């Protein structure tokens, strides 16, 4: 069965509604909202769920993973306090949606993913969007990307069982790291902010539900 493609006007309306929802929930940074507005989420969702691309909900993608809820993407991106010159490390590219949003707000984004299939699909999307400031790596993001460290900002999009020490060590002294932290199905979204002299403060932003950060690379494709 083939579905009639959505009329562009309807797509625009749905996107506008989504942006309003995010703003009403506290994603107020105009640059973050503009980056989300310019990133076609329907390019990142699987065919089965295309129709739901503009809903404010997480959706299943391949390899048993999920594309994050737009509100959470907005909240985490806003919490990073990005600057146009920033070099950013992302752990867990997944569909590449969050990566694409980060790329519109930073100089360079390094992203690590443990599923080859997901990474290849994400790379194709970056190409089609002409996002040339994203550098990808197939590997275990729990270890970060030591060869490219230190980073101005680090974003983890899978739940770390505990404080992600190896990643904090790859952060610049005044950098910011945002990560869901916790072992259970519900985690705390934490923002670590460097104090410039080797220490950092931790703020808990809210409770979230992420797939877990897993050690090693996936053996399946
Ligand atoms: N931001 C993504 C979220 C994907 S879900 C999106 O919106 O599409 C989290 C991703 O983290 C999954 O793709 C999962 O495979 C990946 N992941 C989990 N543990 C990892 C690890 N140790 N290294 C790299 N990626 C990891």
The CATH architecture classification is: 3-Layer(aba) Sandwich
User: Which structural class do you get from the secondary structure elements?
Assistant: alpha/beta
Q: What percentage of amino acids are in beta strands?
A: 15-25%
User: What is the count of structural domains?
Assistant: 1
Overall number of strands: 9
Gross morphology is globular
Major β-sheet annotation: 7 strands, mixed
CATH topology: Rossmann fold
What percent of residues adopt helix (DSSP H or I)? 25-40%
Mean pLDDT: 96
Q: End-to-end span in angstroms? A: 28 Å
CATH class identity: Alpha Beta
List the helices and strands and how they pair.
Blueprint: H1 8-24, H2 30-37, E1 59-60, E2 66-67, H3 70-79, E3 87-91, H4 97-103, E4 108-113, H5 116-128, E5 134-138, E6 151-156, H6 165-168, E7 171-181, E8 187-194, E9 200-208
Parallel strand pairs: 3-4, 3-6, 4-5, 6-7
Antiparallel strand pairs: 1-2, 7-8, 8-9
Bound molecules: S-adenosyl-L-homocysteine.
Description of the molecule:
This protein is an alpha/beta fold. The chain has one domain: Rossmann fold, CATH 3.40.50.150. The chain contains six helices and nine strands. The strands form two sheets. The chain has a seven-stranded mixed β-sheet, with helices on one face. It is globular. The model has no long low-confidence stretch (mean pLDDT 96). S-adenosyl-L-homocysteine (SAH) is lined by residues 65-68, 91-92, 94-95, 97-98, 112-115, 118, 140-142, 157-158, 211, 213-214.
What is the structure about, briefly put?
With 221 residues, the protein is α/β, with parallel strands linked by helices.
């Amino acid at each position: 069965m083939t579905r009639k493609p959505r009329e562009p006007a309807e797509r625009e309306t749905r996107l506008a509604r989504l942006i309003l929802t995010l703003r009403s929930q506290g994603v107020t940074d105009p640059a973050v909202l503009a980056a989300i507005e310019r990133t076609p989420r329907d390019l990142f969702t699987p065919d089965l769920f295309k129709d739901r691309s503009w809903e404010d909900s997480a959706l299943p993608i391949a390899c048993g993973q999920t594309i994050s809820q737009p509100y959470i993407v907005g909240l985490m991106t806003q919490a990073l306090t990005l600057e146009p010159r920033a070099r950013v490390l992302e752990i867990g590219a997944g569909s590449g949606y969050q990566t694409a949003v980060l790329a519109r707000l930073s100089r360079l984004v390094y992203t690590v993913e443990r599923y080859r299939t997901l990474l290849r699909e994400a790379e194709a999307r970056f190409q089609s969007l002409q996002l040339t400031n994203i550098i990808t790596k197939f590997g275990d993001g729990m270890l970060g990307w030591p060869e490219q460290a230190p980073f101005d900002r680090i974003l983890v999009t899978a739940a770390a069982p505990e404080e992600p020490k190896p990643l904090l060590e790859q952060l610049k002294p005044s950098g910011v790291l945002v990560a869901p932290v916790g072992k259970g199905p519900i985690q705390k979204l934490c923002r670590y902010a460097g104090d410039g002299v080797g220490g950092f403060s931790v703020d808990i932003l809210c409770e979230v539900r992420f797939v877990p950060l897993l050690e090693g690379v996936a053996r399946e494709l």
